[in-house]
């Protein structure tokens, strides 16, 4: 296992990726121009700046709709009530970090176009990574999920935006499997990405959400706040053993597809889990492991990426198809 000296540079503390379109304050007049329905949700915050009430799930959803339309050309975006409503800037950072990872093996040039095929584990109803990734880099995506209702909602997004040739969706029918059944014989991916369920139970997810509100100074006992600040169904939020169990299972299963995926990756919310995942990947004989830090305001996050291919093998993957594992 190695950490390449050419690893992507971490984002400076509290800063979005330099290519992230969401730098600085939001331009609400511009957002309202492309999405007029946002106007009714815009408020003036205690600092005298235009904002929205992030404790209002409908406001957050319409805000995301406006961002996707203005910055990524997504003309239609909606999710069923109660499904995870993702913060767009942070999701975009993950995509840009993965692009830098590919550039590391490609003479510092980001590979673009549908020759780059990405597997999104747990795309959910929001389908956010494929929508951003195809808009930014022209990549092709396969999104997977165990929830048929989530996939049905995601398929509406794909069809409504004319992306059927760019984004494909597959249902994982085996809850304990991640790559098995989703990567077909002879199929090859440049990247896999994942936003794993962070919690071990609904109670833990709810407590985490309340801590966020308290930290933001929004925990008002007189106010009815949503149980989960950005929504989410069970599989989006928690699983047996929580994040650590999920990512360790992902790492173990990845070895079976060592030559069919150039770079595997996953978000890791708890920094203490990083070293445990690194140790497991060392035992699995991953050729390279990268830890990429990301930042958004006071929030710190990171993703871990690993490959079983050496540098020359990875470089060849951008020039010719990788050989499927026998």
From TrEMBL:
EC class of the enzyme, as a word: transferase
An MF annotation (GO) of this entry: 23S rRNA (adenine(1618)-N(6))-methyltransferase activity
Localization of this protein: Cytoplasm
GO cellular component terms given for this protein: cytoplasm
Pfam (any one): Methyltransf_10
Keyword presence, Plastid: no
Keyword terms: Cytoplasm, Methyltransferase, rRNA processing, S-adenosyl-L-methionine, Transferase
Reactions the enzyme catalyzes: adenosine(1618) in 23S rRNA + S-adenosyl-L-methionine = N(6)-methyladenosine(1618) in 23S rRNA + S-adenosyl-L-homocysteine + H(+)
Signal peptide: none
GO biological process: rRNA base methylation
Enzyme Commission number(s) of this protein: 2.1.1.181
Job of this protein: Specifically methylates the adenine in position 1618 of 23S rRNA.
Family to which this protein belongs: Belongs to the methyltransferase superfamily. METTL16/RlmF family.
Name of protein: Ribosomal RNA large subunit methyltransferase F
Organism from which the protein derives: Azomonas agilis
Source lineage: Bacteria, Pseudomonadati, Pseudomonadota, Gammaproteobacteria, Pseudomonadales
Name of the gene this protein is made from: rlmF
């Amino acid at each position: 296992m190695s950490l390449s000296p050419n690893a992507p540079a971490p984002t400076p503390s509290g800063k979005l990726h330099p290519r992230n379109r969401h730098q600085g304050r939001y331009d609400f007049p511009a957002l309202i121009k492309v999405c007029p329905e946002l106007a009714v949700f815009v408020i003036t915050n205690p600092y005298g700046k235009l904002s929205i009430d992030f404790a209002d799930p409908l406001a957050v959803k319409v805000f995301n709709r406006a961002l996707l339309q203005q910055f990524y050309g997504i003309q239609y975006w909606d999710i069923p009530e109660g499904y995870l409503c993702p913060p767009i800037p942070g999701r975009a950072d993950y995509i840009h970090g993965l692009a830098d990872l590919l550039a590391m093996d490609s003479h510092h040039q980001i590979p673009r176009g549908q020759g780059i095929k990405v597997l999104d584990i747990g795309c959910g109803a929001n389908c956010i990574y494929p929508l951003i990734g195809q808009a930014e880099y022209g990549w092709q995506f396969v999104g997977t999920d165990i929830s048929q209702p989530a996939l049905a909602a995601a398929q509406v997004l794909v069809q409504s935006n004319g992306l059927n040739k760019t984004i494909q969706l597959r249902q994982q029918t085996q809850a304990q499997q991640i790559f098995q059944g989703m990567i077909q014989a002879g199929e090859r991916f440049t990247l896999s990405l994942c936003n794993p369920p962070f919690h071990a139970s609904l109670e833990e997810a709810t407590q985490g959400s309340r801590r966020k509100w308290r930290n933001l100074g929004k925990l008002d006992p007189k106010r009815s706040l949503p149980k989960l600040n950005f929504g989410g169904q069970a599989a989006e939020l928690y699983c047996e053993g929580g994040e650590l169990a999920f990512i360790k299972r992902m790492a173990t299963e990845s070895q079976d597809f060592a030559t069919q995926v150039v770079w595997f990756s996953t978000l890791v919310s708890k920094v203490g889990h990083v070293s445990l995942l690194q140790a497991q990947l060392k035992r699995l004989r991953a050729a390279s492991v990268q830890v990429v830090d990301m930042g958004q305001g006071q929030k710190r996050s990171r993703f871990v990426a690993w490959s079983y291919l050496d540098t020359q093998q990875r470089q060849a993957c951008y020039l010719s198809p990788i050989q499927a594992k026998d």
